[in-house]
Amino acid sequence: MKYTLPINFKLDGANAKENVDFKPSFDPKNPPLIVLDGEVLPANFNMSILKPESIEKIEVLKDASATAIYGEKGKNGVIIITSKK
């Protein structure tokens, strides 16, 4: 899994914003598993439709931690996105 920097972050309730642009780039032949609120999304899911302000947290699993939980489907890594409720 590769990422193109910069990445955008904003703290809740903060006046200042640290601008870093997040542009993930994946090997299309070996994409990571993407899980949104417990639901496995298709490999061609367009992550750009997610609004940053709706995201509570993002977790990245790789190697044994990904396959221990998600089996063979997690062999290329897992991106777990939890939205704000």
TrEMBL record:
The keyword DNA-binding does not apply. Keywords: Receptor. InterPro entries: Plug_dom, Plug_dom_sf, TonB-dep_OMP_SusC/RagA_CS, TonB-dep_rcpt-like. Residues 28-78 form the TonB-dependent receptor plug domain. The keyword Acetylation does not apply. SUPFAM superfamilies: Porins. This is TonB-dependent receptor SusC. It comes from bioreactor metagenome.
